[in-house]
Amino acid sequence: MTMDCTKCASKGCKISLPCVDRSDEYLEKYLSEDIQNYTKTASELIDNGRAGSLSRLQEIVEYSRLQGYSTIGVAYCYGMEKEAVLLRKYLRHAGLHPVMVSCTVDGIKESQIDPDKMDTTVSCNPLGQANVLNSSGVKFTILMGLCLGHDILLQKNLKMDFSTLIVKDRVYNHNPLQGIPGVKGAEDDFIENMPQNFNLVSVDELKSKLANQNSLKGVYLLDLRGRKAFETDGIKGSLNCLLSDLPKQYKSLMPDKTNEIIVYCNGGIQSIYAVMLLTMKGYTKVKSLSGGFSRFMNS
Q: Residue 125's closest CA among 99, 106, 152?
């Protein structure tokens, strides 16, 4: 009988009452020094309330630190070179030394590896990537956006541990979960759970907060208008950032995702987009000033 745990109603294995028990076949292996190294390191990333506190990339950096890796490999798709450059900077800032290897390494043509093709286009070369990484002496490699099939070839030929950071999905912007019917994205949850007032704060509410400075403790005021307007009549204590710059600056401007955020622009339209962006980035208390700064000034 084929096992299908998704159809199990009792979930007995979650309370040590499994429907089958073959643990005697592998429990002894778990106690070996080699496997203990992996299990203990994995536990470090999630134990004591850490689960959900680290992004996948942060976990990779922490894992590398715990394992004592200083130089790590990155096997990336050339189509993601812009992102690979950013990853290289991130890893270096974290104290690691990345060996960055593109899928086009060695410049092999498609016709050279597939006799049925006449194309002279440079081919993806997972065997070449594996060869470079193996000869570089790295002990851990990150896979980044390789084509399906090429990633399998790479994994079969790598001689070190590896983990996947990004899976390529050209249809769903490299988020394969969105290809499963019924799976909701952050934008779906936002729309479905959007309150009737669309996270709006009225001018009167904001002025009341401004009159009582204690109520502004832990509140981020975010002005999306241009620098000149901000410096001329911005609300005291506000941060300033154009909407177009917000995706790059929100983390440094507002590091605490649990703090209340009140966003305002001139007319109240751009601030709504900011609410959506910040909410989808994990901020929990984001509001837009109803009517914008122009209503604030004229009321």
A: 106
